[in-house]
Write a structure and sequence with these properties.
- With about 325 residues, the protein is α/β, with parallel strands linked by helices.
- The chain has an eight-stranded parallel beta sheet with strand order 1-5-6-7-8-9-10-11.
- Strand 2 and strand 3 form a beta hairpin.
- Helix 3 packs parallel to helix 4.
- The radius of gyration is 19 Å and the shape is globular.
């Protein structure tokens, strides 16, 4: 048996959020004359969507670098998904873009089936194509879940035209993992380059809150829904939301529970370099509802692992967060 760092790790570690840029996708965006596009800026390749510019570094498409990071940090499995922009930003070309991205991820997973598993993206602007692509990805490509963007080119995933996906996810027993694309607040928070810092977290917050208030979790209590980045800002303000609903009687009248009770029906990944934030989520949600993730290549796995381990949680709870919960959700 090959000896790697993970074989001697005291915990079975699963990284639930890691991304690679698909080279074919980048090449497509280089040829486009409207967002999303790829251009050189100050000699560096950048993905550009309005005010949001992100550098594409050489290792952002390097599967060997990903595996080396996994080995260095004792990570047994990684949930791999493509870097955004997703298919929804490509209009009628969305189905072809989705197939391209999913084939790319599936191809890498096929080379490392004992280390990686795939999450698919869907062209949700075309329901028939999205349903067909979901079935292809889960049943033929063996993917383990769906990366669901917190806004679909400006629309929210709880809107009626997307509800079918939540029902289908329950039928297939697969998780939906929320993830921010170009955030809807990008123009508002573009000053001081705060789109990723603030905009992405606001997108997490708004999308998760809308799903909670929509009643979807009442209809589908067995839904496996994961929100990244410790739920954005929602865990921090959930008490205010409870007060609005319970005391001031604001919000949907069909809710059967307090918002904080619905929040505890979802899972949060722990992508935050602040140990105190992880501890707060742990105290609020409990160990059974947290998942280790790195958000690689944007964040180093070591940074999140160090933050978690610095809390010195009970070993059984730490083991659940590092991989035990993910093994159940993804049926690894």
């Amino acid at each position: 048996m090959e000896t790697t760092a993970f074989t001697s790790s005291p915990s079975f570690i699963v990284d639930c959020q890691s991304h690679l840029f698909c080279p074919e996708h980048l090449a497509l965006m280089e040829k486009r004359d409207r967002d999303p596009i790829v251009r050189l800026r100050d000699g560096e390749r950048c993905v550009i969507m309005g005010p949001w510019q992100r550098k594409v570094l050489p290792n952002h498409s390097d599967e060997d670098a990903l595996l080396a990071d996994m080995d260095a940090n004792g990570i047994r499995w990684t949930a791999l998904s493509p870097n955004d922009p997703g298919p929804e930003w490509f209009g009628s070309d969305g189905p072809a873009v989705a197939e391209m991205l999913n084939d790319y991820i599936a191809g890498i997973v096929a080379k490392h089936p004992d280390r990686l598993f795939g999450l698919c993206v869907l062209p949700l602007q075309d329901e028939a194509a999205a349903q067909a692509e979901l079935d292809r990805c889960i049943k033929k490509l063996g993917m383990k879940g769906v990366l669901l963007y917190t806004n679909i080119a400006g629309r929210f995933p709880d809107e009626p035209q997307f509800r079918w996906l939540f029902h289908r996810a329950v039928e297939l027993d697969i998780p939906l993992l929320l993830h921010p694309p170009l955030p809807i607040t990008a123009e508002i928070v573009k000053g001081y380059e705060m789109i990723s810092t603030l905009g992405n977290m606001f997108d997490d917050t708004i999308a998760l809150t809308r799903i909670i208030l929509s009643g979807i979790l009442d209809q589908l209590p067995n839904l496996k829904l994961v929100c990244p980045h410790l739920g954005g800002t929602l865990p921090y303000i959930i008490g205010r939301m409870d007060h609005q609903v319970r005391v001031l009687k604001r919000g949907p009248k069909w809710l059967t529970r307090l918002p904080s009770e619905y929040l505890k029906m979802v899972w949060l990944d722990i992508v935050s370099p602040l140990p105190l934030a992880i501890r707060y989520a742990y105290e609020l949600m409990g160990a059974d509802r947290l998942l280790f993730a790195s958000d690689r290549p944007w964040v180093s796995p070591k940074e999140i692992l160090d933050a978690l381990r610095s809390l010195q949680l009970p070993p059984d709870d730490e083991a659940k967060i590092l991989g035990g919960n993910a093994r159940k959700i993804f049926r690894l």
